[in-house]
Structures are given as C-alpha cells and as structure tokens.
C-alpha cells in the first residue's frame, strides 16, 4: 500500500478490502467502489429509535439502541421507512483501519436529492459522519426520510465513505493556483478562497425558465433501488422564473435547484461541497456532498456539468436571488489518480447534468 497522503482511489479501497481493513461478509457489489469512495450497504435490521444520538466515549451504538429502541424491522424483504421517524441500521461493511487512515461519510447524491437524511455513527463516536484514524469496529447509519416515505432493503446503498491519509485539503493559494491552471468553475467572476464559491441559477435561461422543483407532500413511496420508475409530477412541482430571478424559500418545503456555474473536478483531485458560510444561517445546501474525480471533466464527457443544490430555509421564509452564493466546493488531493473517472463507463448518473432530479424519476 502506498503511503501517499490524500484521498484513496478505487484501487486503494479494493486493496484495503483485500488487506482486511474493510470487512464485509459478502463481496462488494460490482459498482460499489467508486473512483474515490465506497458505497455502504444496509444490513438486515432497522431499529426505530425515539431520538437520534451520538454514543460518546465508552458507549457502543448498540448499547444506545437498546435504551432508545421502539421496535425493529427486518429489511430482508424490504421495508418502508416512514417520514419523520428515526431509524438506525447496522451496515454490512465494518472497518479495521490502519493508524493514519481516517474516513468521512456522506449521503450519496441520490439520497440527498430524495431528502432522506442520513448520517453514519461509530462506536464511541463524538461526531457524525467522521471515522477517526485507526477505527476498528462497526458502522451504523441513522436514516430519517424527511419528505417521501422510502422503501429500502438489505444491500440498499444510501451513503458513501471516503478514506484519506493525512490532510491534503488545498490552501487558499493552492485553490487559486489550481483554478488558474484547470478552471474549477466556469465563471469569469469566480470567487476562489478556501474553495470555489457556487451560486444559484434562478433564471433557467437554458431550460425555458425552469429553475427547480419543490417537493409535494403526501406522496407514494420511493423505492431507493429502482431507477427511472417514477413520474416527476407525482412527487415534484416544477418552478419557473417569472422574470424576477427570485424565489422565496418556504421553511417547510424542500427544493432542488442548480448551480449557475459549471464545475470541474480534475482527475487528481476530489471535492466536497460545504455550506458557503455557517454564519449565513437562513438557508443551506442541505446535504452538500462528495464530488468525484472527473466530475465535469471534458476528458470524461462531463463538460458543462452543474452542481445540484438541495436547499431548505431554516426558520423563516427567505428570499434568494439569481447569482446568490450558496455553497463552496473544497478540493482535496487524491493519493493517486484513479484508473476510472466519474462518468467514464461507470454507469454514472449525473455526469454532464444540469438541473437533474435523482435517478429514481423518469427524466423527460
Ligand atoms: N449536491 C451534489 C452532490 C454531488 N453532485 C454530483 C457530483 C458527484 O460526483 C456526482 C455523483 O455523486 P454520488 O456518487 O454521491 O451520487 P450517486 O452515487 O447517487 O450517483 P452515481 O451512481 O452516479 O455515482 O453528483 C451534485 O451534483 N450535487
């Protein structure tokens, strides 16, 4: 195994699996290892709990589940997870990480686009979605569908994990340098600081004024494992610009919007979208997410790819305007260039996307 610092590539993830650092009773699914991440699979049982929690030092997740459990559900034949309820599911993958290798987890983009709130918890964990270096033990997924009831089963993949050694996030100067060389966002006025800023497109000029979607309430169930199965209009209300370039976010609603800028992740890098500024608390990109090496890369048929924004207002109705900054893409070095890039024959769902709902909907 190479000792290079940075995000682990698909090859290095497979190597960790062979070396016993990632343990799973069942072999990986064919497309489970992505260019710079591994999808995590649900195990056989979901525990419905009264409240979300972090175990903290000296406590295991199972111990907390025993205290907070309402009932348990077998996922073997599939089960519907209800809106607003909190479930904890032990995952099929376990870890025995070498010292110096840590990991972070994040909902898959498809999960975020369905407003299914998910976070990974570890034994003795003090933070969500954070796996400390050298962690040995099980992984658990907290799941809470916020908008649509979700049909899941053993093996469903709702979240993903990224491994890294050291910290290879780029500094301000390195972001500026990489942007000058590779163009990270296609915008003449790009703001490049600790990451590149992304703003909202509320004109939809290239889509006949379609600016996004607002979720409907009281819908049918979404089967998380079925692609292109659902009619958009049964679940979403399309939103059109009426010449103002503005939108009032209702705090009780969930929105899918799109970035104004096309984005680019060069092959030797991975990126993560984070809220623009935690102090701008009125609205946020809800789940943000991992961006793969090669996303938006012309050499992987990605030129022009936009970032999809899952947006919620916090407490009050909040007016957002075309071009308003909403998120930040922070770049990190890969430990090595992945053999395959996002979009290059990997069955990737979102390469080259503009405004795009999750893969579960029939796209017109
Ligand atoms: N808020 C976000 C998060 C991610 N992405 C893009 C960049 C990612 O490289 C791509 C795929 O992300 P995931 O791997 O998280 O998504 P899925 O696993 O659901 O899709 P795929 O099967 O295509 O990998 O989507 C996006 O446009 N907007």
From TrEMBL:
Q: Which Pfam family, any one of them, does this sequence belong to?
A: DCD_N
The alphabetical list of record keywords is:
Hydrolase, Nucleotide metabolism
Any one GO MF term held by the record is:
dCTP deaminase activity
Q: Which domain of life is it from?
A: Bacteria
InterPro entries, from UniProt? DCD_C, DCD_N, dUTPase-like_sf, dUTPase_trimeric
Q: Domain named 2'-deoxycytidine 5'-triphosphate deaminase C-terminal: which ranges?
A: 173-361
According to its UniProt entry, the protein's GO biological process terms are: 2'-deoxyribonucleotide metabolic process
Domain called 2'-deoxycytidine 5'-triphosphate deaminase N-terminal: residue spans: 5-166
Q: What is this protein called?
A: dCTP deaminase
Q: What is the species listed in this Swiss-Prot or TrEMBL entry?
A: Maritalea myrionectae
The organism's taxonomic lineage, starting at the top? Bacteria, Pseudomonadati, Pseudomonadota, Alphaproteobacteria, Hyphomicrobiales
